[in-house]
Amino acid sequence: MGSKGFGADKRLLQASEFKAVFQGPSYRVSTANMLLLARENELTQARLGLVVGKKHARKASQRNLIKRIARESFRLSHALVGVDIVLVARQGITQKDRAELREMIDYLWRRLKKKQHAANVQPHQNCNTKQ
Q1: CB under 8 Å to 86, separation ≥6 — which residues?
Q2: How many Cα neighbours within 13 Å face the side chain of 130?
Q3: Which domains does the chain have, with CATH numbers?
Q4: Are strands 27-30 and 34-40 parallel, antiparallel or unpaired?
Q5: What is the spatial distance between Cα 7 and Cα 81, in angstroms, rounded to a whole number?
Q6: In the chain, N or C: fewer CB atoms in 10 Å?
Q7: How confident is the model over 31-46, as pLDDT tens digits?
């Protein structure tokens, strides 16, 4: 797959990878229907894990739609690097249509990028030129 694909190198696959994000997230962003947890990694790319339980999306088609939209949005999002991400669906997620889901997930990516940027920007030292 090309760099825009969603190969195994861009996914969280092992339970231990999910556990690491759940136990020590560096970033946490949420909406009423979705929670994003992220943890810094030592890789040059971001990796995504999805948790859409039967409790919140009873039908397999609903769970698959949510995951498909999240993967596509992740694939197209730019400037996400060096972070493992877990998206967790919450109550009421199935009440959203495709466009609302996509907008909500895009919003989570923007918030994560903003938090990453804020964490990486060092405060300036006192630049007072008066002596």
Answers
A1: 12, 18, 21, 22, 36, 37, 38, 48, 49, 50, 51
A2: 0
A3: 13-116 (3.30.230.10)
A4: antiparallel
A5: 15
A6: C
A7: 999 999 999 999 888 9
